[in-house]
Amino acid sequence: MASPAERAALTNILELGLTDAFRLFNQEAGQFSWWDYRAGGFARNRG
Q1: The pLDDT value given to residue 1
Q2: Number of helices followed by number of strands (H, E) in the chain
Q3: What is the pLDDT, as a whole number, of residue 43?
Q4: Is the dihedral of CA 38, 40, 14, 1 positive or negative?
Q5: In this predicted model, what pLDDT tens digit does every residue of 1-47 receive, in sequence order?
Q6: How far apart are the C-alpha atoms of 13 and 7, rounded to whole Å?
Q7: DSSP 5-36
């Protein structure tokens, strides 16, 4: 869960116009460029 400060920081980054290059070229569902290692996300394919 993200805090309001983290959400605001992400919004500021997105407003810079940055693009997720992986998602730009690969929009297929179930494909991820990052997994949360703390909860075993990679092993469960929960990107």
Answers
A1: 82
A2: 2, 0
A3: 78
A4: negative
A5: 889 999 999 999 889 988 888 889 988 888 878 777 777 777 777 76
A6: 10
A7: HHHHHHHHHHTTT---HHHHH---TT--S---
- Would you mind telling me the total number of residues written for the chain in this entry? 47
Are 45 and 30 spatial neighbours (Cβ–Cβ below 8 Å)? yes
Among 35, 39, 38, CA closest to 47: 35
Q: Taken in order 28, 31, 39, 1, is the CA torsion positive or negative?
A: negative
Structure tokens, 31: 């494909």
First to last CA, the chain: 15
Residues 6+ apart with CB under 8 A from 30: 45
